[in-house]
Write a structure and sequence with these properties.
This protein has 283 residues and is of the alpha/beta class. The chain is 42% helix and 18% strand.
């Protein structure tokens, strides 16, 4: 999964447009994009969107945060539509995932859905306190599929006046980004890069996405349909990377009892083999 496009939960029109694109996943949003007065309406529309799904997209629903008191109402409304996953905003750590997983088990059983089938993605850096919970996601639940970092709410939590300048995040946000990446790697789940908010700056989007892939992120969250193709392309391995990966895999296949090999004048070992398999999407 490379691209996860947010779609407002109160707009069937935007959902239909998003469904025509090539995002790997759509996140139907019941949180920030829906005002309080329209939450009930959005829940009903979201259920209909789930039932009217078209195309190969995975469908996630971003519910309201646990501390709002609205999460259970969100889940009760949408779980009969069997979403592929739930996005939990303002997650504080593994205990929040365990709480959500317990609720999902009950809703799956009530809806006749296979118990354990609904995945969880956490937005894991939206408050100052959440940074200290990043090390608690490992082994918290087999449902956990990814950790996403976000800067918008974190900025408010910190009381900051600016997140970035010249297209470069300031140090608190780079710290959150890097720690989220490491937490996801430690938990063996997908690290998901934050949304790009300069909508018409497509060159900047490509640059940021390529930097995310370079550092180890495997997907990016999006807020506009025209970003999808750029992000998908940026996460595809280059021809040079494919060639290198194929050569590494072939070298170890020819020397199955060797832990270290020489390839094109460079030393390679098993971490290089794991990286090569990741590039080619091999287990």
């Amino acid at each position: 999964m490379r691209s996860m496009l947010f779609v407002p939960g109160d707009s069937s029109r935007k959902f239909e447009k998003a469904s025509e694109g090539k995002a790997d996943a759509l996140i139907i949003d019941l949180e920030d994009s829906v005002v309080t007065e329209k939450k009930d309406e959005a829940r009903k529309l979201t259920l209909q969107m789930l039932r009217d799904r078209r195309g190969p997209h995975q469908l996630y629903v971003r519910v309201n945060a646990l501390d709002t008191g609205m999460t259970l109402a969100d889940l009760a409304a949408v779980m009969p539509g069997a979403p592929d996953g739930i996005v939990l905003p303002k997650s504080r750590g593994g205990d929040d995932v365990r709480q959500l997983a317990t609720w999902l088990e009950a809703f799956e059983a009530a809806a006749g859905t296979k118990v354990g089938s609904t995945r969880i993605v956490c937005v894991a850096t939206e408050t100052a306190g959440s940074i200290f919970g990043l090390g608690t996601y490992k082994d918290c639940s087999p449902r956990l599929a990814g950790l996403m970092w976000g800067a918008e709410d974190l900025s408010a939590s910190l009381g900051a006046t600016e997140k970035a300048s010249g297209g470069v995040f300031h140090s608190p946000y780079r710290l959150a980004r890097d720690l989220c990446l490491m937490a996801a790697a430690a938990a063996e789940v997908a690290p998901i890069d934050t949304v790009y908010t300069d909508i018409d700056n497509l060159a900047g989007l490509e640059q940021e996405t390529r930097a995310a892939r370079r550092d180890g992120f495997s997907a990016k969250a999006l807020i506009h349909p025209k970003h999808v193709d750029i992000v998908n392309a940026a996460f595809e391995p280059t021809e040079a990377e494919r060639t290198w990966a194929e050569k590494v895999i072939a070298a170890f296949a020819s020397n199955p009892n060797s832990g270290t090999l020489r390839l094109d004048g460079m030393m390679i070992d098993k971490p290089h083999l794991r990286a090569a398999k990741k590039i080619l999407g091999q287990p």
